[in-house]
Amino acid sequence: MARKEVGKKPDAMDMLLSPSRGLLGGDEDESLRNHEVQERFRKHVDEKLQRWSSAHPSTGAQAEARRRRLEELSIILLDFRKLREGVTSSRRTDAFACEAYEASVLLSIHASNDAQLSSSLPPLVSSLHPAPLTRCSTSATDTHSDVSDAFARLDISPAPDAPTCAFFLTLHLLHSHLLPAFSTPNTPQTPASSSSAHPPLSSFLPTLFGHLRTLHLPLPTALTPIPQLSDSHIRFLLSFYYALLRNSYTSLARLLSPSHLPAPPPAVTALITSLHLPPTFHPLATLLLTHSAAIRTNRIWPVVHKAYRFPPDPTAWLSKGLLFEFEVEQDQRAAGSLERKERKERVSESWEDEDEEQDGQEARRAEAARRAEAWVAERKAAR
Q: Which stretches does UniProt call biased (Basic and acidic residues) (predicted)?
């Protein structure tokens, strides 16, 4: 098979350079600054995703196979970076541009590629999603421009739906504000509100409200004791913020449970399917999992330790409060051994089905308890 590849002409799409590296042969019409080339390149990348998904099934894979799977996905993400550069350099803000960035965000979260996530999520939320809304607002208020100018500004691309905008805004503010702030130790020398590694917590609510206005999303009618607004993701974001702010490990454990984590909106679920990602992939849960260990160590544990001096044996009761139940569930989902089902949609055909589900829950709790016991024992031994 390898001999057949020797001397094979490289695919023209693979030979395209990132716009920041110049033009291949100096041909502007065959560069990623050209909209038609961008769309051909996107189809080419989709073919790569199909081959990747077929070669690396997500279900039943061992740890080493999952590692190789994510490594190859990170290589495909480099093609999405090329595409994003082309979209940006051509000043494209239509539905195609939004999809390119949204796909990059979802794939980056699935691959745990923070560098790609950091370069794709902020422009999506701050520039691309508001662009159609801004154009509509400008056209409605500008009564002095002539007809030709109005047609030049006309864009038939629909604005992203509100749930999709709220979903990616939630991911953005978690990734840029809350998770970095609450993953660091809270000490007098380095309080979370003054670290240079992330924006100050005092800017979180003003930033959130500013984005909600820009995206024409409804503002909450109340913030405490329970945030009152219609969108489930923004409501979760605010509840998560207040739970972290109050160092309430019981509230965190409740929020990070299947019944409280909001499911992705329909448009995002459709995009996940089109990207050949596993149907069990939950972007919000996956992003939260990347910081759960640091939050456990630096935020939850000091509260538990102070409240109980030092938890007595056994400590299995801490498995939920220390987020181990959440961690076990996400590990099983990543391994393809746990199918996500909403409780309201779950219909058991027999008592045996219910028994299997109960056995699965008990097994997850037992594994979470085992991890909690070992984790606490390590801290006792280190005293």
A: 1-12, 338-349, 361-371
Q: Is residue 73 part of a domain?
A: yes
Are 21 and 99 part of one and the same domain?
Answer: yes
Helix (H, G, I), strand (E, B) or coil at 85: helix
Domain contains 153: no
Q: Give the contacts of 14 (CB within 8 A, at least 6 positions apart).
A: 44
pLDDT bucket at 150, cuts 50 / 70 / 90: very low
In a domain, 249, yes or no: yes
Rounded to the nearest 10°, the torsion over CA 236, 242, 244, 248 is -100
Q: What is the pTM of this model?
A: 0.83
Q: Examine the domain organization and report whether 343 and 281 are in the same domain.
A: no
* CA dihedral of residues 215, 217, 221, 222 (deg, nearest 10): -70
Same domain, 176 and 292: yes
Each residue's pLDDT tens digit, 8-59: 556 667 667 666 555 554 556 678 888 999 999 999 999 999 999 988 777 6
Task: Read off the amino acid at residue 231.
Answer: D
Pairwise CA distance, residues 270 & 264, whole Å: 10
Find out whether 84 and 119 touch, Cβ atoms under 8 Å.
Answer: yes
Examine the domain organization and report whether 42 and 74 are in the same domain: yes
